[in-house]
Amino acid sequence: MRNRLCSHSSYPWSMRLFAVVLTCMDGRVQVKGNNYFSTTFGARNIDTVTAPGMVKYLADATERTSQILSDLRISIHEHGSAQIGVVAHADCAGNPVPDSTQKRQVSEAVAFLRTEFPGAEIAGIWVSEHSIVERIL
After folding, report:
1. Based on the structure, what is the number of domains in the chain?
2. 20 to 30 A from 54, CA-CA: which of 34, 92, 94, 119?
3. CATH of the domain at 85
4. Could you list the residue range(s) of the whole structural domain that residue 55 is in?
5. 36-42: which pairs have CB atoms within 8 A and are 24 or more residues apart?
6. How confident is the model over 119-132, as pLDDT tens digits?
7. 8 domain-assigned
8. For 72-129, how does the pLDDT look when each residue is reduced to its tens digit (9 = 90+)?
9. 22 near 49, Cβ under 8 Å?
C-alpha cells in the first residue's frame, strides 16, 4: 500500500517500512524509544530526529521547532514514514522540569504534530528513570 503522506520515492514501496521518532538526544532513551515504536508501528526502520529536551520544542514552538519539522518532513517525504513517535524521559538535562510537566508536553507535542501532519499515526511515550515506558497518547 502506498504511503499517503509521501510525495515521491526512490525505493520500491515494498522496501519502505519506515517510521520516525522525535526524541531527546539522551542516549539512555533512544534505543528504548526506537524499539518501542518499531514494535508498536510494525516498522522495520526508524528514522530518529533528536534535540535536547525534544518535547519542549514541540509543546511550545521556538525557532528550533521549524528545523525539527524540516527534519521530520525529510523522513515523511523521502522515506515514506506515516507514523511518528514522540519520546520524553525522566531526568532530562535538556528539559529539566517535573515528570508531570514532561508528560503534559508529550500530550501537547502529539496534538501539535496531529495538526501539522493530519494523515499520520502519532503516539507519545514517557520513559521513567527505571526505563519503564508509559504510553501517553
Report:
1. 1
2. 119
3. 3.40.1050.10
4. 16-135
5. 36/85, 36/125, 36/133, 37/83, 37/85, 37/123, 37/125, 40/85, 40/123, 41/83, 41/85, 41/121, 42/17
6. 999 999 999 999 99
7. no
8. 999 999 999 999 999 999 999 999 999 999 999 999 999 999 999 999 999 999 999 9
9. yes
